[in-house]
């Protein structure tokens, strides 16, 4: 009798996952290729993340702090990339160097009014991460962006000031090397896992 009950329990539990499939998604479409009817199903992208950070308290605390910092500055990096694209498109339509400079000064004032206090409240670590994430989002270092939009002299002045305070506007982004943890956190944010 025990064997029969055990077999029934195994059969019931193994058939449950088959019943629990998602039936709310749209029905697969079909395509006829060389006379064969094939199902065409759109699948969501799946991101596989490496194992969680080490379990010791010190490493876990560093990981948690990095996650907090990246989550705080990543929206600013995304916004910076959007604004850069917008400003470049607008600058392409403005004739004359003087008009472009006036527009950039006006845009700089608007950005300062909108984000100045928030950016100034960032910690040192958050500032360094923001510089790296801006490079990730735009493909250009912060120094290059300032140089393109405001000129070499202004970029030199900002780089000098940044170096005094321990930053480097020429910092790049290496997702496979030194910035691998930041890249993992960004991918987790984009996938909705954080």
Q: Beta fraction of the residues?
A: 5-15%
What is the overall silhouette? flat
Series of H and E elements: HEEHHHHHH
- If you average the pLDDT, what whole number results? 78
- The total count of strands amounts to 2
Helix count, per DSSP? 7
Helix content: 55-70%
Q: Report Rg.
A: 26 Å
Question: How would you sum up the major sheet?
Answer: 2 strands, antiparallel
Characteristic key phrases:
194 residues, mainly alpha, two-stranded antiparallel sheet
Report on the structure:
- The protein has 194 residues and is mainly alpha-helical.
- Helix content is 66%, strand content 5%.
- It has helices spanning 2-19, 57-93, 97-120, 124-138, 142-150, 152-164, 180-191; strands spanning 29-33, 36-40.
- It is flat.
Summary, kept brief:
This protein is mainly alpha-helical.
Write the layout of secondary structure elements.
Blueprint: H1 2-19, E1 29-33, E2 36-40, H2 57-93, H3 97-120, H4 124-138, H5 142-150, H6 152-164, H7 180-191
Antiparallel strand pairs: 1-2
């Amino acid at each position: 009798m025990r064997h029969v009950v055990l077999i029934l329990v195994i059969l019931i539990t193994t058939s449950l996952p088959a019943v629990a499939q998602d039936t709310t998604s749209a029905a697969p479409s079909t395509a006829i290729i060389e006379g064969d009817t094939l199902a065409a199903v759109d699948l969501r992208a799946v991101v596989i993340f490496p194992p969680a950070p080490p379990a010791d308290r010190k490493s876990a605390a560093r990981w948690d702090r990095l996650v907090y910092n990246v989550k705080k500055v990543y929206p600013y990096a995304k916004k910076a990339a959007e604004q850069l694209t917008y400003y470049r498109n607008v600058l392409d339509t403005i004739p004359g160097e003087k008009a472009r400079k006036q527009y950039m000064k006006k845009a700089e004032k608007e950005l300062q009014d909108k984000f100045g206090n928030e950016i100034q409240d960032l910690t040192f670590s958050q500032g360094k991460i923001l510089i790296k994430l801006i490079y990730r989002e735009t493909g250009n270092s912060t120094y290059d962006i300032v140089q393109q939009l405001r000129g070499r002299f202004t970029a030199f002045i900002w780089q000098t000031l940044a170096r005094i305070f321990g930053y480097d506007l020429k910092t790049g982004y290496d997702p496979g090397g030194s910035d691998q943890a930041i890249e993992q956190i960004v991918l987790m944010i984009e996938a909705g896992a954080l």
